[in-house]
UniProtKB/TrEMBL annotation, chain B:
One Pfam family from the record: CbiQ
Top-level taxon in the UniProt lineage: Bacteria
Location relative to the cell: Membrane
Membrane listed as a keyword: yes
GO CC, one annotated term: plasma membrane
Topology term for the membrane: Multi-pass membrane protein
Lineage, broadest ranks: Bacteria, Bacillati, Bacillota, Bacilli, Bacillales
Transmembrane segments: 12-33, 53-74, 95-118, 124-146, 224-242, 262-280
PANTHER family: PROTEIN ABCI12, CHLOROPLASTIC
Keyword Nucleus: no
Primary localization: membrane
Keywords noted in UniProt: Membrane, Transmembrane, Transmembrane helix
Protein name: ABC transporter permease
Length: 535, 314
């Protein structure tokens, strides 16, 4: 690792990314047997003086909340400097510097819990930077943030790397933004370094060496490149596009068939429209009419005269910015809160199951098995049916190996699946999920999608609140946008995202001039192969 | 809302309130107590805190008033028996003593209201941290957990209701068990997160050496002057108290109140001490009022005489 490098670690959950990063930070080296040596500036890491080990190597963790120690922003920022026993004058000038750089000045006297997740993570980064580190370690820092905040955070990292020549090692699931910035990418699987190279090399190698399971980590432009370019092209050392801009340029330059593609699609598009709007006036399983909600008497209106319906068997994805009231709406639908005005209606005899963002809220027993049994007991099942039901769910969710573990000890994805299994034991007809893709790696996301499909096949209607545009574009049957307390747009994903200019998938942004309704790599590839076979 | 007395350094405010508290308890003299009561009440009114004061007043009056009523009923000391109530002698001294106690209580209440408004938690913690950095850090972290746990418990209650764990339904035994379960969830979650917090603290060099304290409050010249004034006045009053001023004797027999030269010095010192913030607050009010009235002339005064440019070109 050289000074000033921007290194990205990638790999599925549990592959050892966090363990590796923790080994690089002496104070946090995990307990266990260790072999091999780590050197920092030619010196053994374990022999480094305590102060430079703490100050020169900074680390930011995954969970923005858990890292915060103090209750006001200025105090949290000062915390690290106070630990180092710096002079008040030094502290003051450093604080001034960092507040200017990050624009934290208006927040300085705010209480920490008023901040958004993105602001909290920025605060954590700033607090570490105040010790003026030379090496910055980041363990999935954006996994709990919404896409806008994540992008801002990564831009700041980029600036630190470019302007201060700070060495950065970051582990990430969301590579759309990070990969184009990286100097080097390390692919870890099962605790071993599987591949290493520049981002472009990695794309090539993923394409050539059949590292297909890792395809999902690549940015959309690279995936499109791999899906569309014939093998000869790949060998011809064409520069691999990583960003939307490069991807679009590559499409313009290298695809002579674009004209044909466009014509072809014109027919397909009209065909799709003839098939008619999906929103046939079917009886809704759940609907809310002109719902208005405030948390406090004198509080602002979170939802304003909002109307929304959920139809049988559909997968509705509700999107919207931070604090738009998405989670609130879901709680209203689940019956956990009552609107001041308007009505939430459900068909007679139907029940709704609600999965909150934080699966930890669901656990109260000592093992996963006890959790499930307790829930089955509450649902009023006999022991026989409970056992069968739990066995079936365990099979579907692949939770057998963690059955005897404490719910706090299993991975985030498994926690979420356990919580979902618990909700399913209540046999709901409607499923309400709050940000189920948060913090999941691409593999886990695909698993979740397959699961949702399975549930829909069994006649369940699902409403998901999410920030994840790519996920919504791939799997939703209908998308809706929540803005300013109401639903502003509502249509099938192709039209929903096709009509958007900024708020759409990276693939769509690349190909929208030719295929305005194509949202995913698969769709583009399908249209592409069709047009090739016809011409 | 940070002008006037609230803008002084926390140490000045703390000295002021500590002094008021001490004097309210030491000086058992109606003149002093009423002066203090009026001073703090006016200070609160000047700071625009009349409404909270008024809201709490019935409660305080009830508390203090009950002392005034109960004291003569239970205490029968004193030599001037006014009448008999249920065969119990009611003495003039006991009534006066009760009234005095009432004024003391009212003074204490009102001093606390003012204290809460002026010395906020972070100001107090700031001073505390200077005195005892480690315990202050611990206290701060603990204080932060109270609202945090409240928010979390609310979330947990909401979700666990789905699985039938609810303190609102069922018999007492079930409710208690469910309550414990909810607390257990809160504790497991919070302890798990505390591990990460500990990591984050260690990663930022906690415990490597003696902590310094970041200062957000500056002790300026006005604060130093105020500290000096308050200290001198306070010492005068304390000295007077040691000489026996600022006290009246009610039990066992009321003595006539005398007001001599020593008493006057002591009282003037006390007035200066108690009224200093009023002066600050009043000046603040005046400042803003007069600044509204002011008509600002052009910022650059017009000078007469030859122009710079023209004089040079000559």
């Amino acid at each position: 690792m050289n000074e000033g490098e921007f290194v990205v670690l990638l790999g599925p959950s549990g592959c050892g990314k966090t363990t590796l990063l923790r080994h690089l930070k002496r104070e946090l080296t995990p307990v266990g047997t260790t072999a091999g040596v780590i050197r920092y500036k030619g010196q053994l890491l374990s022999e480094l003086p305590a102060e430079s080990a703490a100050g020169e190597i900074g680390m930011v963790f995954q969970n923005p909340d858990a890292q915060i120690v103090m209750d006001t922003v200025w105090h949290e920022l000062a915390f690290a400097m106070e630990n180092m026993g710096l002079e008040p004058a030094v502290m003051r000038s450093r604080l001034a510097e960092i507040s200017g750089l990050f624009g934290l000045e208006p927040l300085l006297y705010r209480s920490v819990h008023e901040l958004s997740g993105g602001q909290k993570q920025l605060l954590n980064l700033a607090s570490v930077l105040l010790l003026q580190p030379k090496l910055l370690l980041l363990d999935e820092p954006t996994s709990q943030l919404d896409p806008v905040a994540a992008r801002e955070f990564i831009q700041i990292l980029h600036r630190l790397n470019q302007e201060m020549s700070m060495t950065i090692i970051i582990s990430e699931h969301r590579l759309e933004e990070v990969l184009p910035l990286a100097d080097r990418v390390l692919l870890l699987t099962g605790g071993q370094l599987r591949a290493e190279g520049t981002p472009r090399d990695m794309v090539r190698r993923v394409g050539e060496e059949q590292l297909w399971p890792h395809l999902a980590y690549l940015p959309a432009a690279a995936r499109l490149f791999l899906a569309l370019s014939p093998d000869i092209d790949r060998a011809a050392e064409a520069p691999v596009p990583l960003t939307v801009r490069d991807g679009k340029r590559w499409l313009q330059e290298t695809l002579p068939h674009l004209a044909a593609l466009e014509r072809n699609n014109g027919k397909a598009a009209t065909g799709a429209q003839e098939a008619g709007p999906h929103t046939q006036p079917e009886a809704a399983v759940m609907s809310c009419r002109e719902v208005t909600f405030r948390y406090r008497k004198d509080g602002p209106e979170v939802l304003k005269k909002l109307s929304l319906s959920l139809y049988p068997g559909e997968l509705l994805m509700l999107m919207g910015g931070n604090g738009a009231g998405k989670s609130t709406l879901l709680q209203l639908l689940a019956g956990l809160a009552k609107p001041q005005r308007g009505k939430v209606e459900m068909n007679k005899g139907l029940t709704a199951g609600y999965l909150a963002q934080n699966p930890l809220l669901y656990f109260s027993q000592d093992t996963v098995q006890e959790e499930l049994e307790h829930m089955a007991h509450y649902a009023g099942m006999t022991e026989q049916t409970a056992r069968e039901e739990i066995a079936a769910l365990l099979g579907v969710f692949q939770l057998r190996e963690v059955l005897q573990s404490h719910p706090q000890d299993i991975s985030g994805g498994q926690q979420q699946q356990t919580a979902l299994a618990m909700v399913l034991l209540l046999k709901p007809d409607i499923l309400l999920l709050d940000e189920p893709t948060k913090g999941l790696d691409p593999g886990a996301k695909e698993k979740l999608a397959a699961l949702l499909q399975l549930l829909r096949d069994r006649g369940m209607s699902i409403l998901i609140v999410t920030h994840d545009v790519e996920f919504a574009a791939s799997y939703a049957t209908r998308c809706a946008m929540l803005f300013d307390g109401g639903i502003t747009a509502e249509s099938p994903p192709e039209r929903f995202f096709g009509a958007n200019f900024f708020y759409t998938t990276a693939v769509n942004r690349m190909v929208r001039d030719w295929l305005p309704e194509a949202l995913t790599v698969e769709e583009v590839a399908r249209t592409w192969s069709n047009s090739v076979s016809r011409s | 809302m940070n002008g006037g007395f609230r803008s002084v350094h926390p140490s000045v405010a703390l000295l002021y309130y500590a002094g008021l508290l001490l004097f309210a308890m030491l000086l058992f003299h109606p003149l002093y107590l009423l002066t203090e009561l009026t001073a703090v009440a006016i200070l609160l009114l000047l700071q625009g805190q009349g409404r909270p004061l008024l809201r709490g007043l019935p409660f305080y009056l009830l508390m203090a008033g009950s002392v005034a009523v109960l004291n003569p009923l239970f205490s029968h000391r004193g030599s001037h028996i006014l009448f008999y109530f249920l065969d119990q002698p009611i003495t003039l001294e006991a009534i006066l003593y009760g009234l005095m106690m009432m004024v003391v209580l009212l003074t204490l209440f009102i001093v606390f209201i003012s204290y809460n408004y002026t010395v906020t938690t972070d100001k107090f913690m700031y001073l505390f941290a200077a005195a005892a950095p480690k315990s202050a850090l611990l206290t701060l972290m603990a204080i932060r957990f109270v609202p945090l746990f409240q928010r979390r418990l609310h979330q947990i209650t909401l979700i666990q209701r789905i699985r039938g764990i609810d303190v609102g339904t069922g018999n007492l035994r079930k409710r208690m068990r469910d309550g414990m379960t909810l607390l257990k969830v809160l504790l497991t979650w919070s302890l798990e997160e505390a591990l990460q917090t500990a990591d984050s603290m260690k990663a930022r060099g906690f415990g490597l050496r003696k902590r310094s304290a970041y200062a957000i409050y500056k002790l300026d010249r006005r604060d130093v002057a105020l500290l000096a004034i308050l200290a001198v006045c306070g010492l005068i009053v304390l000295g007077g108290w040691l000489q026996g001023y600022g006290k009246i004797e009610i039990y066992p027999r009321m003595k006539p109140v005398q007001f001599g030269g020593g008493e006057a010095t002591c009282f003037i010192g006390f007035c200066l001490f108690a009224l200093t913030p009023l002066w600050l607050e009043g000046r603040e009010k005046w400042l803003w009022r007069s600044s509204q009235r002011n008509v600002y002339l052009s910022a650059t005064p017009i000078k007469t005489g030859p122009h710079l440019m023209s004089s040079r070109s000559r």
